[in-house]
Amino acid sequence: MCLDVDDTLVDYSTSSRAALASMVGSDDTFPLWQRITDDHCARMLTGEFEYSTMRNIRTRAFFAALGEELDEHEATRRELGRQEALAGSWRLYPDVVPCLDWLRAAGLPLAAVSNASGRHQRDKIATLGLAQYFDTVLIAGEVGAAKPDRVIFDTACAGLNTALADTVHVGDRLYADAIGARDAGMRGVWLDRNGQGDGSLPHGVSAIHTLAELPELLVCELAGTRV
């Protein structure tokens, strides 16, 4: 069993918005921040720069897009303040611990598979008490591949010693998580917390709206029932 971390287990969007607001006064520019973050994280995975360097470069690019040029010292100051606010607002969704307890009680080996990068993601997992549940943790920045690249799914299954076809991956992004896992040969489950789906799903992908629905889905799958 594989689970994404941010916006699947951890309410990352809320904490990230709050951290951005602490830096710029509001979260109105969050879509811009996220686009610039996604771009810089992708460049980091190619080896263009290290994670610690990326954060400052990303912050300078963000403010430049808003029309403000920052020197390195000021970018560092603002970014450190944002990071402090972010770490102080990490929260699990209320359905997470009951689901993880059920999965462990069912005897399923568990992997956390995250597209984040750097030590901060492991710190987050440990701080929120998630580390005790996982047999292995896969971080894109460490693996050198990010979902939907099948390399990270292959690596997760190797760490769990499970076959791809017998492993389920759950995440909040339809393409990167559910479809990516399906294309790698796994069972992909989209956690559509915000009800973004229109009722239709790609072949081989299931959807749930809360992790409280996951045990029933797994039981039905094990019983060979179409969900």
From TrEMBL:
<dbReference type="Pfam" id="PF00702">
    <property type="entry name" value="Hydrolase"/>
</dbReference>
<dbReference type="GO" id="GO:0044281">
    <property type="term" value="P:small molecule metabolic process"/>
</dbReference>
<keyword id="KW-0460">Magnesium</keyword>
<dbReference type="InterPro" id="IPR006439">
    <property type="entry name" value="HAD-SF_hydro_IA"/>
</dbReference>
<dbReference type="InterPro" id="IPR036412">
    <property type="entry name" value="HAD-like_sf"/>
</dbReference>
<keyword id="KW-0378">Hydrolase</keyword>
<dbReference type="GO" id="GO:0016787">
    <property type="term" value="F:hydrolase activity"/>
</dbReference>
<protein>
    <submittedName>
        <fullName>HAD-superfamily hydrolase, subfamily IA, variant 1</fullName>
    </submittedName>
</protein>
<dbReference type="InterPro" id="IPR051400">
    <property type="entry name" value="HAD-like_hydrolase"/>
</dbReference>
<dbReference type="InterPro" id="IPR023214">
    <property type="entry name" value="HAD_sf"/>
</dbReference>
